[in-house]
Every structure is written in structure tokens, then in C-alpha cells.
Amino acid sequence: MTDVPTPAMHIGEVAARTELSLRSLRHWEEVGLLRPSGRSEGGFRLYTEGDVERILVIRRMKPLGFSLEEMSAVMRDIEALEGEGVGKDQRDRLADVLADAAERRARLVRQLAMADEFIDLLGDRLG
């Protein structure tokens, strides 16, 4: 078995905890966005609590419309930020992402308000 901090979880448990499909988790691994901390002797993916935290960060970026490449860059910068010797470049990029995420959220809020207005309009007309 590869060296994985315990306790380790299998992909099914991680999928249930993060409300993601097995397919999404496997796809994110295939494209290099995510990697499990290790594998069991039988070759099964093993995840730690830290892996789950990273998956939840990715999951939170997804509704904002970030691309896989953008999410991957953000995750690299977050990992650098959590490590030692983080540079000004990572902080500046993350500050830009923060501003971008806030703009994307505001756009979603406006879209949701329009959807609510439409639902109210139809509800009123249907009486």
C-alpha cells in the first residue's frame, strides 16, 4: 500500500461526502485537477480529509463557471499558499481570482433575481 495518512477513504465515501459522482472525481483525476493521496494494495483510490477539503474547494468553484484549467491553477496557488515560501505572484493571482469570483457570484445573483421574477409573473398569470 502506498503511504497515505490515516484514516483513508475510498472513492465511494468521498463521493457521498462531497455530493459528487464517482465519474466527476475520476474525471478530475484524469485531467490532473485532483489526485488521491494514495492507492490500496488492490489499486483502489484512497483519499484523506485534506483531499476532501480540496475537492470541496473545487466543487465550490464549479457553479461559478471556472474552467478546469482555471481551477487547476487556483488549486496550485492555494497549495503554495498553505506551504512555506509562498510568493507575491500566488497571492496576486488568488486576489484576482477572488475579485473574479465575486463578479461571477454577483452575475448569478442577478440571474436568480430574474428567474424569481419570471416565476412570480407566471404564478400571477396562472392565478
Q: Could you please describe the fold and organization of this structure?
A:
This protein has 127 residues and is mainly α. It has a single domain, classed as Orthogonal Bundle (Multidrug-efflux Transporter Regulator, Chain: A, Domain 2). It is 66% helix and 3% strand. The chain contains 5 helices and 2 strands, in the order ααββααα. A two-stranded antiparallel sheet has the order 1-2. The termini are far apart.
Q: What is the compact description of this entry?
A:
The protein has 127 residues and is mainly α. The protein is built from 5 helices and 2 strands, in the order H-H-E-E-H-H-H.
The N- and C-terminal alpha carbons lie at a distance of 64 Å
What percentage of amino acids are in beta strands? under 5%
Q: Can you write the helix and strand succession as a string? A: HHEEHHH
State the domain count: 1
Biggest sheet strand line-up: 1-2
* CATH T-level topology: Multidrug-efflux Transporter Regulator, Chain: A, Domain 2
Shape: flat
Query: Could you tell me the number of beta strands?
Result: 2
- CATH architectural designation: Orthogonal Bundle
Radius of gyration: 19 Å
Q: What are the salient characteristics of this protein?
A:
127 residues; mainly alpha; Multidrug-efflux Transporter Regulator, Chain: A, Domain 2; two-stranded antiparallel ribbon; 2 strands; flat
